[in-house]
Write a structure and sequence with these properties.
Helix content is 38%, strand content 16%. It is an alpha/beta fold. The strands form two sheets. It has a six-stranded parallel beta sheet, with helices on both faces. Strands 5-4-6 form a three-stranded antiparallel beta sheet, with no helix packed on it. β4 and β5 form a beta hairpin. α8 (167-177) runs parallel beside α9. The longest helix has 18 residues, at 232-249. The chain is elongated, with a radius of gyration of 19 Å. The structure holds nicotinamide-adenine-dinucleotide and zinc ion. Zinc ion binds next to loops. The site of nicotinamide-adenine-dinucleotide has 26 residues, from β8.
């Protein structure tokens, strides 16, 4: 990764009237939350295909809660890293207009971002699939598994594979993506559907696409204009500094 690429990315952001970010599990790896791909950690013991589907939850919610409990502990300990903070700063200086995140860890908000669309929901509330009652995760933290007044096991308000995306998140994401002039894709392999349509929707509006990932993805050779390979915690602050310099000198 060269200085030149950082400068090019900063030029795009400084000149864009609407910049959007699409983030995934990779942005939270430096906060201690493993992504699906890295070796070790939670997902080497719990296959997401087996544990993160809505059918798995419906047929054996207690089994799925073994995984959810562990994930909850990891997420609870996590603090925003330099990438989350840099994005908060980019928004504060008026150069980032929204974040569409696939993460359910709340770390963008903790890092100072306000305009966050949680495409896959949030783990801080729980719902009953059977009677519709809602609870906060906090009030049910001591129950294993957390159970509704109607005696059924509660489900966290995160989107499992096979579940529909919240309508409002989809609508707002589409609106932003189709008017974006620049899109930052950070820490996602962009294989989970339908959120992986965001880059092509943005490209439909001729948005420039800046990708920051540890490894190349299917976007790298198709839609990406600038590929910055490496850790989001190192690269995002460099981009924000470069954008600030450009703003000051313009
Ligand atoms: P993924 O695991 O498929 O891909 C992660 C991507 O991030 C990879 O391209 C990898 O190279 C990159 N990466 C890893 N470490 C990085 C770093 N330090 N800096 C920059 N890039 C890094 O993740 P995904 O595309 O988000 O898909 C996983 C699905 O699972 C999503 O739907 C997400 O909702 C869910 N998930 C969420 C969390 C969370 O909330 N933190 C954690 C795990 C999984
Ligand atoms: Zn109930």
């Amino acid at each position: 990764m060269t200085r030149q690429l950082i400068e090019q990315a900063a030029d795009i952001i400084a000149g864009s009237r609407l910049t959007l970010a699409l983030t995934g599990a990779g942005i939270s790896v430096e906060s201690g939350i493993p992504d699906f791909r890295s070796a070790g950690g939670l997902w080497s013991r719990y296959d997401p295909e087996e544990y993160a589907t809505i059918n798995a939850f419906r047929s054996d919610p207690r089994k799925v809660w073994n995984m959810l409990r562990e994930m909850d502990q990891v997420v609870n300990r996590a603090r925003p890293n330099k990438a989350h903070l840099a994005m908060g700063e980019l928004e504060a200086i008026g150069c980032l207009h929204g974040i569409i995140t696939q993460n359910i860890d709340n770390l963008h908000q903790a890092g100072g971002s306000r305009n966050v669309i949680e495409y896959h929901g949030n783990a801080s509330t729980l719902s009953c699939l059977w009677c519709g009652r809602k609870y906060t995760a906090e009030e049910k933290r001591d129950e294993a598994p957390p159970t509704c007044q109607c005696r059924n096991v509660l489900k966290p308000d995160v989107i499992f594979f096979g579940e529909a995306i919240p309508e409002e998140a989809m609508r707002r994401s589409y609106e932003l993506a189709s008017s974006a002039e620049a899109l930052l894709v950070v820490g996602t392999s962009a294989v989970v559907s339908p959120v992986n349509t965001i880059p092509s929707i943005a490209r439909g509006n001729s948005a420039k696409i800046i990708e920051i990932n540890m490894e190349r993805t299917h976007l790298t050779d198709s839609l990406t204009d600038i590929f910055l390979q490496g850790s989001a915690g190192e690269i995002m602050p460099l981009i924000v500094e470069a954008v600030k310099e450009k703003k000051q000198s313009s």
